Amino acid sequence: MAEAAQADCVMICVPVGAVEQVARQLLPHMKPGSILTDVASVRGQLGPKITAILPENVAYVPGHPMAGTEHSGPDAGFSTLFEDRWALLVPPEGADQNAITTIEKLWTLCGARTKILTDDEHDRICAMVSHLPHLLAFTICDTADNLSDELRAAVLDYAASGFRDFTRIAASDPVMWRDIFLANREALLGTLDRFVADTQAMADAIRKGDEAGIINRIERGRAIRRTLIENRQA
Amino acid sequence: MAEAAQADCVMICVPVGAVEQVARQLLPHMKPGSILTDVASVRGQLGPKITAILPENVAYVPGHPMAGTEHSGPDAGFSTLFEDRWALLVPPEGADQNAITTIEKLWTLCGARTKILTDDEHDRICAMVSHLPHLLAFTICDTADNLSDELRAAVLDYAASGFRDFTRIAASDPVMWRDIFLANREALLGTLDRFVADTQAMADAIRKGDEAGIINRIERGRAIRRTLIENRQA
């Protein structure tokens, strides 16, 4: 708390379910003109909640860096982690413009590009680009774990090509991801429903031997992948 | 065909739907004592079909290397592609033991480890470790492609972390994967059904706010990932 009282800026880096509680402890100690930020992966009602307890003369400008690996904590950082990645800033309405500029500068100095979004835009985007892939990664491991002993052992032996790429992100921290899934449940479950419907459509094409339908779905996937490469996000 | 007549061993490397046709063209030219092999990703009825048209004194020992990238064709090879990977051999019943030993040696010299499996074991394992992940990768891109223009553009901008790992294998060759999905449709659709059921169970846990249920599923995924690392397949 003594450090928070000295700081020009405090960044809360804890699982999303714990951000509000930590902010409640820190905010009374922060000095006038200082900035509170956090890196929570889900915005939900966090913005209004923190704004409601914000002391006068302390600004709140949260930002979510779209970068990371399956490892968590300070030891998981490396110097190029944020290079060419996006930091999505989600300042509450009416947030101090100087404070926003300072947080933009903070992320730019780390090598990131910044973008300002609303809480809702942020959460719908993250449901698709991060939360759904993690849910699928955890689940494909779950499915492998539920196989017969014999088949599971074989899967673990011969996992190269495909499966192992899916399992890398399944090594991520359980508490962090439990909190994300719960905090973004509405957008995540909506995105998952669309994905399951698309999966069933592909399954139907395979079941019926619809060669053109299968090719069409694969080709659209390749187009998305090509655009990622063009956007330097692949 | 002149080359096939000279060869001690011919390896067919074409999409699985085209293997039988190519074998029918090559086999009449192959010399006594030579070996036919292929690298098809689905065995299905391929073994019995080729065995039925095999000339006397030509052996058939197919093998499927569990390695590769999203790129296809001779130019996509590199010197360490097969190092520490498995080549799954699926010789038909009664295949010549000397020919099996020769094909084992061929893959060992490429750096791979070999294992002999039945067609059915091979296809069920590959449905889980390779065919399902590819189906999911194509589909998550399809889901992204089906979003509103505005949201799709945002997803393509901010794709780091998770999504891009899933899309890498979606760049794979459409004809090759159409053939694989159709050739292994029964095992693949069965594995997909289990996966979708597990996905719905995770979604239920999230919907109900079942914190212990979410953690339990994530922890099991992490255990599978740890075993992969121990098996040097991560």
UniProtKB/TrEMBL annotation, chains A, B:
Entry superkingdom: Bacteria
Protein name in the entry: Prephenate/arogenate dehydrogenase domain-containing protein
Pfam families in the cross-refs: PDH_C (PF20463), PDH_N (PF02153)
Keywords: Oxidoreductase
A biological process term (GO) from this entry: tyrosine biosynthetic process
PROSITE patterns: PDH_ADH
Keyword Nucleotidyltransferase attached: no
Domain Prephenate/arogenate dehydrogenase: 1-234
Biological source species: Gluconobacter roseus NBRC 3990
GO MF, any single term: prephenate dehydrogenase (NAD+) activity
